[in-house]
Design goal:
Radius of gyration of chain B: 20 Å
Oligomer: heterodimer
Largest sheet of chain B: 4 strands, parallel
Shape of chain A: globular
Number of helices of chain A: 10
Order of helices and strands of chain B: EHEHHEHEHHHHEHHEHHHEHEH
Shape of chain B: globular
Number of strands of chain B: 8
Strand order of the largest sheet of chain B: 2-1-3-4
Strand content of chain B: 5-15%
Strand order of the largest sheet of chain A: 3-2-1-4-5
Distance between the termini of chain A: 49 Å
CATH topology of the largest domain in chain B: Rossmann fold
Radius of gyration of chain A: 22 Å
Structural class of chain B: alpha/beta
Distance between the termini of chain B: 69 Å
Helix content of chain B: 55-70%
Largest sheet of chain A: 5 strands, mixed
Number of domains of chain B: 3
Structural class of chain A: alpha/beta
CATH architecture of the largest domain in chain B: 3-Layer(aba) Sandwich
CATH class of the largest domain in chain B: Alpha Beta
Order of helices and strands of chain A: EEEHEHEHEEEHHHHEHEHEEEH
Strand content of chain A: 15-25%
């Protein structure tokens, strides 16, 4: 492999968007892409692999692959990933690569939000939103639709406001009824949007950031970080400078690519994967009343892997069901 | 009189011990069927929506046991909403048309009260017999707690995958067969030797994590998505102070125990929080002082005593730089979310540890 360039790929498959990067051993980005998941992670990853292949010089060999994000297990199985990591670790590792002194990471994505606290490059605390998606990207885009403004322009509107109106935080339902009320009272759209950005930040700091020591440098990432209105509101409320990395949306993928490089197992990645037919089927085990739904991935209609079972019998039964016999669990 | 077929709520491995008491008050014991998704589904269907999740599990359990032939159900009381469980479940089951007897044992006022209650309800039993049977049940619970404590601390380091679980299954079968105090103790002794003979590869300073929270979700692994085992299998020594044995001791020497726990929780607590809140804080403070790597706190969604404990735990975490991971369970929680948080917690503890060394 002497005359070939070794590289490592990280793929971050989120609910809304799918990201991939290819790094060389010194963490320089050789290829990257970002596209919408559109509810079909397998298809999204195939498109992503095609785009990555076209960007890479022919002498680059991908030695290992890592996956993260909510579809990490599925895509990890399909890509033959050597490492499958949770988003929190991946984001922390990725951010540390470009901001080694970072203390606080804010992350607001499509469906979730999290905060990661670091001390001397070590994650010391983290939190993730639990039951509620209030104040995440999906709430912002639904409100943008209500106001008939493209969500990409939301931030610019907020910046033009001189007198942000108060919008209730806490809960999407409260915020929405407050927003409708203020709009009907005749407040300018700019002020309402600025108020909304404000309330999202308050909601985030009160729920996810509750009890955490927020110390600069602060890096803000995830889709919502592209909204300057929210960035401004964060700066206003925390009284600290907020760093938004231009590669912020790729941090998870970068992190897991670094982790893929650091682990020992190497397996040459084959771009042919994008032409192979993959399919997932949910199979109910039927071995006991638990009826675990085992999600099976089929590669060219052959069983590749499955998960979702609470006992080993689940996998056996799922495989058997694809050939029609069931045994009982213990 | 009809045959009395007794069933009781399921928690962890304890049915083996509860069975002894079942035989005391009934002719037959119906072992509660293992908790499955169906248990939770029917439990949640007939429960008030906002009630805490142990209620839903227990109700589902009872309905499944009635389907298996149970006609006498045993429920306990306690220092929180648990005190209303029995009455509410009795009413719900009656409205559903099930003809069952409900035996509500105690409300956390000590063993003496439970003995008097059984004597009053079943006057034909002698005090001596009642005490002996309770002692036998206690010895079984103690065997379970002692063996499982060892399992918790070592299963993450086993060399032959599955060796601990296999032996644990045999242990429960043998414990179930053991009848006299002497044989129960023998089983306890034999298995604690056998478990120590299993091959483990344990680092000198493994990660140590405490596991505290509300009684039911701590003790019944299905209800907490088996997080104790999951975390242990990453290679963590798990410590769990809350067991049936500890609870029996707690209700027997209640006042002294509470004073003790308050002293251990000093200076974070001056008044008891109810249910397990006080001791959870005491344990958190102790674990933090002993240099544990982290703590997991679990509760059912809406559990008042534990909600009261949480702000205090935040404070302990801050003062000792002691990571605490909180989980709240209800009838609907995706497993993926729990796995993500647990895995991230483990990664964080590893990073912290290697940084310290």
């Amino acid at each position: 492999m002497s005359d070939q360039l070794s590289a490592y790929m990280g793929v971050d498959i989120g609910s809304i968007s799918t990201k991939a990067v290819v790094l060389d051993p010194s963490n320089q980005i050789l290829a990257q892409d970002y596209l919408w998941t559109e509810g079909n992670p397998i298809q999204a990853v195939k498109r992503l692999i095609l785009s990555i292949e076209q960007q890479l010089p022919p002498d680059v060999k991908i030695l290992s692959v890592g996956t993260t994000g909510s579809a990490r297990e599925l895509i990890g199985t399909i890509l033959g990933a050597s490492i499958i990591k949770n988003e929190i670790t991946a984001h922390a590792v990725g951010t540390l690569a470009s901001h080694p002194d970072v203390h606080t990471i804010f992350e607001i994505g499509g469906q979730d939000s999290k905060i990661i606290i670091l001390d001397h490059s070590v994650v010391t605390d983290y939190a993730m939103n639990t039951l509620c998606a209030a104040g995440t990207g999906s709430f912002l885009s639904s409100q943008a639709r209500r106001l008939n403004i493209p969500v990409e322009e939301f931030g610019q509107y907020a910046l033009r406001s001189t007198n942000p109106t108060k919008i209730a935080g806490r809960c999407t339902v409260f915020a929405e009824s407050d927003l409708v009320h203020k709009a009907q009272m005749g407040y300018p759209t700019e002020d309402i949007i600025a108020g909304l950005c404000h309330s999202i930040v308050l909601n985030y700091l009160n729920n996810v950031g509750k009890g955490k020591h927020i110390v600069p440098p602060i890096v803000f990432q995830g889709g919502v970080s592209k909204n300057v209105g929210v960035v401004k509101a964060f700066e206003h409320i925390t009284h600290h400078e907020i760093i938004v990395d231009p590669l912020g949306h790729l941090m998870g993928a970068i992190g897991v690519a670094i982790l893929a490089r650091k682990q020992k197992q190497q397996q040459l990645f084959d771009f042919q994967i994008k032409d192979i037919d993959f399919r997932t089927v949910g199979v109910e085990c039927g071995g006991c009343p638990n009826d675990c739904e085992v999600v099976c991935v089929l590669r060219k209609e052959q069983f590749l892997d499955g998960w979702g079972n609470r006992c080993p019998t689940g996998l056996v039964n799922a495989q058997k069901q694809l050939t029609n016999t069931v045994i009982c669990g213990d | 009189m009809n045959t009395r077929r007794v069933c009781f709520p399921l928690m962890g491995s304890y049915p083996v011990a509860e069975k002894v008491l079942g035989h005391l008050i009934g002719d037959e014991v119906i072992m509660p069927p293992p908790i499955t998704k169906r248990t939770l589904e029917i439990g949640a269907k007939y429960s008030p929506e906002a009630v805490c999740v142990p209620f839903k599990y227990m109700l589902g359990n009872f309905i499944e046991a009635i389907e298996d032939g149970a006609n006498t159900l045993v429920q306990v009381g306690g220092g929180c909403r648990l005190a209303c469980y029995a009455e509410l479940q009795r009413a719900i089951l009656r409205n559903l048309g099930y003809e069952v007897d409900f035996v509500t044992v105690g409300n956390g006022n000590g063993i003496g009260q439970i003995i008097r209650f059984i004597k009053k309800t079943y006057p034909k039993l002698s005090y001596l017999h009642i005490c002996y049977e309770i002692y036998r049940a206690y010895e079984k619970a103690r065997a379970i707690d002692e063996i499982e404590d060892f399992v918790r601390k070592n299963i993450g380091f086993e060399t032959n995958l599955g060796s601990f679980e296999r032996l644990h299954r045999h242990f429960l079968i043998d414990l179930d067969r053991a009848q006299t105090i002497r044989t129960i103790r023998e089983v306890n002794r034999d298995y604690s030797t056998n478990f120590r003979l299993l091959d483990v590869q344990k680092p000198e300073k493994p990660l140590r994590v405490g596991f505290v929270g509300e009684f039911f979700v701590v003790l019944e692994p299905f209800s907490n998505f088996f997080i104790e085992k999951q975390l242990a299998l990453y290679g963590v020594e798990m410590h769990r102070p809350l067991t049936v044995t500890s609870t029996v001791r707690n209700i027997t020497f209640h006042d002294r125990y509470l004073r003790q726990q308050l002293a251990l929780a000093d200076p974070y607590l001056h008044h008891p929080l109810g249910a397990e809140g006080t001791e959870n804080i005491a344990h958190a403070v102790q674990y933090a002082k002993q240099g544990f790597d982290g703590l997991i706190h679990v509760k059912p969604f809406g559990c008042m005593p534990e909600i009261n404990a949480m702000p205090v735990l935040h404070r302990v975490a801050e003062d000792f730089h002691f990571p605490i991971l909180y989980f709240s369970f209800d009838s609907l929680t995706s497993e993926t979310g729990i796995k993500t948080r647990l895995e991230a917690f483990y990664d964080m503890l590893m990073m912290r540890k290697s940084d310290h060394e």
